[in-house]
């Protein structure tokens, strides 16, 4: 089998109720670069790249596309190394790797479709057939109702059956953050897990101080307390707090994660399959994490394709550590309204009582709705 074409689709949808996080970007649109890879056997695979879609598309079209055409999709890691070698001299991190991730995922989708097997059966097998999802939400929308809106949204997720929720913090006022976290914890009660995500807005002392104050609210993990470049700072925050510290959605490749993991700068690393190098590379990152006793719980923030790729990867992740009643890695299931996530697959991934069934169809286990693809395609 040979690749005959690599096509990028830039999809974009409008966000009806714009929201923000501690980063301060106002989300008014959601966009994704979707990668379609066609073959001479009529099998088509789909992938997705995290980050600025137009840049991903340009990198693929100018740097990668011609090197993928003519290749056998089963040589997926050979292709990975070749593409990486093509760009490594010019700066390694970020968007070039996200673009490579979309190609890698699409090649795995093709392999699965060719063999009639879901991807997780090709990368080690099913450690689980369903995953527990946590609801990502509780962004900042109405600046006059920051506590009230968080309470209402958390209540909705709890009523939908989610057993874990992740909320945004980083309001520029630790007392307000604490008040909001306390109100959410009181609303959902002691049995729903609660993680917090600061989108790297704090200094080391700010993070340690707020982290200690949040500990009484039984926080599952403190995500991105400080800036991702500051690995020394992560070591300090992680050592200082009893709660787990997480991060890594803006780290890339096995080399990017190697030092973070080896130094135990975080208790939980969160590679994104659409950003960190695809399924091939995230397996390697997970292996490094496993060797160091660090948990790997992938980040996910994209369309139905990225979500499906994350579920396939998660299904094949071992429990860390294995146990009589293990605490398996959870699926990040982002809940802000996004038609690219909810409508792009004919058979979308859904949660029931906080549980997502791992699709067992071939490849990613989803079928793309071409009408939706065309409806949201802007380039
Ligand atoms: Ca995050």
From TrEMBL:
GO terms for molecular function: hydro-lyase activity; isomerase activity; magnesium ion binding. SUPFAM superfamilies: Enolase C-terminal domain-like, Enolase N-terminal domain-like. Residues 147-244 form the Mandelate racemase/muconate lactonizing enzyme C-terminal domain. One of its GO terms (biological process) is amino acid catabolic process. Keywords: Isomerase, Magnesium, Metal-binding. InterPro entries: Enolase-like_C_sf, Enolase-like_N, Enolase_C-like, Mandel_Rmase/mucon_lact_enz_CS, Mandelate_racemase_C, Mandelate_racemase_N_dom, RHMD-like. This is D-galactarolactone cycloisomerase. Its cofactor is Mg(2+).
